[in-house]
Amino acid sequence: MSVKVKAGSAPKSGVKKVVLAYSGGLDTSVILKWLQVTYGCEVVTFTADLGQGEELAPARKKAELMGVKQIFVDDLREEFVRDFVFPMFRANALYEGQYLLGTSIARPLIAKRQIEIAEKVGADAVAHGATGKGNDQVRFELTYYALKPDIKVIAPWREWDLDSRTKLLDFAEKHQIPIAKDKRGEAPFSVDANLLHSSSEGKALEDPWHEPEEFVYQRTISPEDAPDKAQYVEIEFERGDAVAVDGKKLSPAKLLTRLNELGKANGVGRLDLVENRFVGMKSRGVYETPGGTILHWAHRGIESITLDRGSAHLKDELMPRYAELIYFGFWFSPERLMLQAAIDKSQEFVTGTVRLKLYKGNVGVVGRKSPHSMYSHKHVTFEADHGAYDQRDAEGFIKLNALRLRLAKLRGK
Questions:
Q1: Average of pLDDT values for 371-378?
Q2: Is 228 assigned a catalytic role?
Q3: Strands 152-154 and 125-127
């Protein structure tokens, strides 16, 4: 049975230095002080810039005010898109057929960097601010253990008695933790964001019958307010990864940023979803993935002419399992790595250009070309094909495929 540790009790022993995933917000600021008080240990903070669009300097300043000596603020945007988002998009991954996994794919990178920092500074523990009801605690901790099996993990939300917003605020005021004035009341919903998406959930969004108010949306304009004229965009791919937009070569993070701009302007990428969390409950989330939605359909577009039927269909069969592994937190598992190897093998000839039409929240593929295209005009044309395809061959093909059906029908006669 776990023991609830009350703030202000005698320090627990056994931890000398802990690396905390730190945002600078109320929760992680309280956690920082709680770790110092409860464990009597040195706290090292780590803040990741994943393109969430927030100024990170205040997080550093607040950590300094709270006596933190070792502060890490790392720009991980390029690594995030190159090594996490792009491999996932090669698989066309969608959790439960809709969710582009924007939060799920960020957690293993944050946790990976935490472990790297822990090893660098000689820390014997890591800590996160995920609650005991959500998926993120699983994603963080599975990554910690996969990369450093003997690491000690501290999850304050599963230990402390600060189980309400009021108690958090009281603890913050007692220990003189700076609190933004707008944090003194209940937030209408919680938001998580990175370069791939923004996620809103809780409070005003907990009733799945009520349509989200327009103020919920962070990254996109309303499709109704989008331009009345369609916008076209061309995306170039090399071996399954996007490398250019409208003829301009861009780094992975800059490319996704550009697609986010196009998606936002055209109301692309909104999703209102009730999903099944790994821990067993259902939750309702409002997601915005403007650039990712464009990229998803562009990638499927280039695959449509560069993958043969067997490879394409096998990928579609593997995709739900692959997406589930990421959603559940198994990015560094042997099975995800095995699937990734198969997916990456399929991308050898996924090179070319896709043209898309963006219009009031919709994304349509309207053109595709590739030096490795398997599309053969002379085989599919309704005009004379000059012997490219002998239609008489279809008769034997059909009869062989019909043999078991005929035998089944004749059974017992």
A1: 90
A2: no
A3: parallel
Helices (H) and strands (E) in the chain, counts: 13, 14
Number of CB atoms found within 10 A of residue 240's CB: 22
**C-alpha distances in angstroms, 128 versus 1, 143, 246, 308, 329?**
21, 12, 40, 44, 15
Q: Taking all residues of the chain, what is their mean pLDDT, rounded to a whole number?
A: 93
2 is catalytic: no
Ordered by start, the domain boundaries in the chain are 17-92+104-186, 191-369, 378-405
Question: Exactly one of 23, 27, 200, 219 is catalytic; which is it?
Answer: 27
Quick one: which H or E segment has residue 379?
Answer: helix 377-380
Q: Is 136 a catalytic residue?
A: yes
Share of the chain above pLDDT 70, in %: 95
Fold matches, 17-92+104-186 and 191-369: no
From the list 77, 90, 107, 113, the catalytic residue is 107
CATH number of 17-92+104-186: 3.40.50.620
Out of 75, 158, 190, 376, the active site residue is 190
Chain center to CA of 104: 4
Angle 212-327-321 from CA coordinates, rounded to 5°: 120
Catalytic, out of 136, 198, 283, 346: 136
- In the prediction, which pLDDT does 1 show? 31
Q: Which residue has the tokens 């039409």?
A: 357
User: How do residues 192-228 score in pLDDT, each as one tens digit?
Assistant: 999 999 999 988 899 999 999 999 999 999 999 999 9
Tokens of 333: 């598992």
The pLDDT value recorded for residue 8 is: 45
How would you write 170-204 as a 3-class SS string?
HHHHHCCCCCCHHHCCCCCCEEEECCCCEEEECHH
> Catalytic residue at 107?
yes
Superfamily of domain 191-369: Argininosuccinate synthetase, chain A, domain 2 (3.90.1260.10)
Q: What is the pLDDT of residues 122-151, one digit of tens each?
A: 999 999 999 888 899 999 999 999 999 999
